[in-house]
Amino acid sequence: MNVANELNMKIEVVNWTNPRIGDICEAINGKTFKSSEWATTGLPIIRIQNLKSEESAFNYYNKDLEDKYKVENGDLLFAWSGTPGTSFGAHIWKGSLAALNQHIFRIDFDQTKIDKKYFCSALNYCVAGMIENAQGGVGLAHITKSKFMETKLPLPPLNEQHRIVAKIEELFSELDKGIESLKTAREQLKVYRQSLLKHAFEGKLTEQWRKDNAGDVHGSTSAAGAGSAGAAKLETADELLARIQQEREARYQQQLEDWTKAVKEWEEMNKVGKSPPRPKKPAPLNVHETNKSDLPEGWKRVSLEALLAFGPINGWSPKAIDEPTSTKAITLTATTSGKFDGTKYKYIDTEIPKHSSLWLKHNDILVQRGNTIEYVGVPCLYSGEDNQFIYPDLMMKIQTADSARSQYVVSCMGTVEARNYLRSRAVGAAGSMPKINQQTLSSLPIPLCSVAEQNKITEILDERISICDSCSDYIDEQLRKIESLRQSILKKAFSGQLVPQDSNDEPASELLKRITEEKAQMEATAKVAKAATRKPKKKVANQVDAKKKVKTQ
Length: 553
Known about the structure:
Elements: H1 3-7, H2 21-24, E1 26-29, E2 43-46, H3 48-52, E3 59-61, E4 70-71, E5 76-79, E6 81-82, E7 89-92, E8 98-100, E9 104-108, H4 116-132, E10 135-136, E11 141-142, H5 145-150, H6 158-200, H7 207-212, H8 237-268, E12 300-303, E13 308-314, E14 320-321, E15 328-330, E16 345-348, E17 365-368, E18 379-381, E19 395-400, H9 406-413, H10 416-423, H11 438-442, E20 445-448, H12 451-493, H13 508-532, H14 540-552
Parallel strand pairs: 2-8
Antiparallel strand pairs: 1-9, 2-3, 4-8, 5-7, 5-9, 6-11, 10-11, 12-20, 13-19, 14-16, 15-16, 17-18, 17-19
């Protein structure tokens, strides 16, 4: 059944009624504060992010403010604009005196006739239906005031409201304990994952493996030769770099050939779309000489650029269309999690040359060059089919040389140290999306070891991180089940099935009658008071007569 239809169905419960929200309250919208009006002192301005998280920073307003835009502790607020599923909803303000920002209603009502906590929960129960009817799209939507006020709300007798609130709080308290435990476990997994990555790229994860394979060049073990004086040693980073440089030169020549073909195709297509970028000649190797003491013998810290056969190159973001075409462009959300999601794409009405570097190929590494500071620099290994997608302008693409394993590199780029390196170098005007450029990404320090050890590190990480992923998936599943249970509780609460009904309670219809009568009386009184403050207008006719009298005198 459609959620919106279900919410607006008449409730067949004894002594309940189903009024419009506008019948029982007033919704006061917030003020539009200009950024030039923000201050560092004064009343905190309540924005939607301040309702979602107590840790969100405030802007302040230090000028005179009308009372209708002020919020006091305990006021009921409703965020009516934002991202469906995250921003919308009712909140009881727990802070001090504050200023109400746009996109938030302050809900004014008679708290002696409607339980505030009941009202808050009932509004949140109705949010899903409101979102279905909201204006806007998947990314951003808003509920108009008229639709908000027309939405119907289940209203039981006042005493039953109190009983429902008490029961909801009792049940939700148990659920909240479970949520807290699950979230703690998830944070512990994150800490373990980062600790695992840190040890991996400090050489600690493979310390015993190096001892066991000290006489092996390419990763095959030899019990007889491992400890013998004449046995070959694992390839050092210097030896590997020399080989990578040869691979980069060979790959560059191949890229020049592909580029020449791509340009020819582009010209044959009347130069539609972005011209194929000329591949860059491999730059000299850049070795980071600092902090060598924290690496095992034979390892070396080099710039990411030294390990690349291609890139970094920005993508392209042409205008999307609704109709399916032969060209799919992934969106930023396809890689935000660090894992490639091939369901996040849009169609574009531009044919891309088959030799264009915009096409993604297996084991390409994508890096978010522009996003919120939390996600800027997120690396992701492309796992889709070759030439199935192109990538957007807010991503950069790189390809590693054959002797630098792509999974090894992308795992290293996911460490706290690497992420902080990129975040600290992101640039952008205040309030804008922070970005990193190709030079910053190219300079990222990467600990380099032999190919055999890269393979071993990748093997260990794959095994242990897959266990972390399974645990994380289990936690997410349990959180979804708890949220589903929470919704079931609310559904029972607002259909009269959660607590016993009492025939001695005043019927909600009588309660609603008193609310509407008092509301109408208050509106009439306010209208009279407003009219009394108006200055009387002089009639034009009287003004004309007065002028005539002056002329005749």
